[in-house]
Write a structure and sequence with these properties.
Structural class of chain B: mainly alpha
CATH superfamily of the largest domain in chain A: Winged helix-like DNA-binding domain superfamily/Winged helix DNA-binding domain
Oligomer: heterodimer
Largest sheet of chain B: none
Number of domains of chain B: 1
Distance between the termini of chain A: 33 Å
Order of helices and strands of chain A: HHHHHHHHHH
Shape of chain A: globular
Number of helices of chain B: 4
CATH topology of the largest domain in chain A: Arc Repressor Mutant, subunit A
Number of helices of chain A: 10
Structural class of chain A: mainly alpha
């Protein structure tokens, strides 16, 4: 489907790009949120990423998957944005969350939506690199090599970040949110 | 090994719930709108470049014709000899041609960057 859309866009049918947007916007948004942790900034990043992808589509040679090529743009834009607005994001990472005590009992009745909420809140509280790697590896099911192409990081670096990410996410879910591992299944 | 597998399953399960849906329902339309706006701007930039070349060539041709005709005129203009007027005209004409040509060369060297900057300003 991607090749078909790309061919049409390159032949001048700009409207075909809408299908690319529809297909990739949610995963791209998840990736941008991993780094930026702010909805409106993530939207800005996504807009510019899609515009860059549209402008540079002719340079996409099809050697890698389109998603790999596009997510690399999103990740680069996200880190560029984070670097530019450095001071605004410090609080998101460092402020410890305040969890009401009653969560401890309510947790046993967690619905899927609540689980989603807690997991995404936990992902907001780990470092951008860690939540990004977790989403690329487990959510988008990329291999370590594909993540390397998307982020430009070395294989060993990715493995280290992934290991740290698992520890930190588990820590936040169990210690901070008092989530029982069983509840999350 | 079993522990690693179970950890992997645990994180797969957890992370399957971490997909975020973009909370802006008009996002697709917004991006497509920006793309069309940029396409229009690109067309108008191309037209402007073509027009500026046409006027540059027309102006240069006119200047060359005038600089050929002027020395052939014998009369003086408001008491100033024609030779002086011709020199003054040639100085102004060459200055204009040089500066315009310089701008053109400069533009063609950085045209991608300039067009991109203009397009970026368009979407802000």
């Amino acid at each position: 489907m991607d090749e078909f859309c790309i061919r049409h866009i390159l032949e001048g049918d700009s409207e075909a790009f809408r299908q690319i947007i529809t297909k990739y916007k949610d995963m791209a948004y998840s990736l941008a949120m991993s780094v930026i942790k702010n909805e409106s900034y993530a939207e800005e990043i996504l807009q510019s990423s899609f515009l860059i992808a549209y402008d540079k589509l002719s340079t996409f040679k099809g050697i890698s998957k389109f998603s790999t090529w596009f997510y690399r743009i999103v990740i680069n834009e996200s880190f560029k944005y984070a670097k530019k607005h450095k001071t605004e994001f410090i609080d998101f990472v460092e402020t410890p969350p305040e969890i009401p005590i009653e969560y401890e009992n309510a947790i046993l009745k967690l619905e899927v939506d609540d689980q989603k909420y807690f997991i995404n809140e936990a992902l907001k509280r780990i470092s951008p690199k860690e939540s990004l790697i977790l989403r690329l590896y487990y959510l988008d099911e990329n291999s370590i090599e594909e993540i390397g192409s998307e982020t430009g990081w070395s294989t060993s670096n990715i493995k280290v970040i992934l290991h740290r990410a698992r520890i930190n996410l588990r820590l936040i879910l169990t210690d901070v949110y008092k989530l029982d591992k069983k509840v999350l299944y | 090994m079993k522990e690693i597998d179970s950890e992997d399953t645990f994180f797969k399960e957890i992370m399957s719930k971490s997909r975020l849906d973009i909370p802006f329902p008009d996002f697709d339309d917004k991006v497509m709108g920006l793309i069309y706006k940029r396409l229009l701007k690109k067309i108008s930039i191309t037209r402007d470049i073509k027009l500026s070349w046409i006027f540059f060539i027309l102006g240069s041709t006119f200047g060359i014709i005038v600089s050929i005709i002027l020395p052939k005129l014998q009369e003086s203009m408001t008491g100033i000899p024609m030779a002086k007027i011709t020199i003054l005209f040639l100085i102004i004409f060459s200055f204009l041609v040089m500066t315009q040509l310089d701008s053109f060369i400069d533009f063609y060297k950085r045209r991608k960057k300039i067009i991109n900057e203009t397009l970026t300003q368009t979407i802000k």
